[in-house]
Each structure stands twice: as C-alpha cells, then as structure tokens.
Amino acid sequence: MDEQGFSLWKMPWADSVTFEELSAHIHPADRDRVRAAQFPLIN
Predict the structure, then answer these.
(1) What is the C-alpha to C-alpha distance for residues 13 and 37, in angstroms, rounded to an integer?
(2) Cβ–Cβ < 8 Å for 11, 17
(3) What is this structure's pTM?
(4) Structural domain of 20
(5) Contact by Cβ (8 Å): 31, 15
(6) What gap in Å lies between CA 12 and CA 28, rounded to an integer?
(7) Which of the listed residues 9, 24, 28, 39 has the most CB atoms within 10 Å of its CB?
(8) Is 30 a domain residue?
C-alpha cells in the first residue's frame, strides 16, 4: 500500500499490511460481506 492508501485508511505507515489490519477499519456490519468478496470460496 502506498502513502495515500495509509492516509485514506488512517493507518500508520508500515512495510506490510494484513487483511485483518484493514478489516479493523471496516464497519462491523460490513466485514463479512467484504471478506466474502475478497476471499470467494473455490469449488
């Protein structure tokens, strides 16, 4: 993620960012939907 991404997500700069760290900034009611879109099940 670049400097603008960290600014938009209101996160301190880091060498890497996990999905879980970003998820902490997503409204709790939306997290399951976002996770499903990011990691769809493969059949």
Answers:
(1) 25
(2) yes
(3) 0.61
(4) 3-38
(5) no
(6) 21
(7) 9
(8) yes
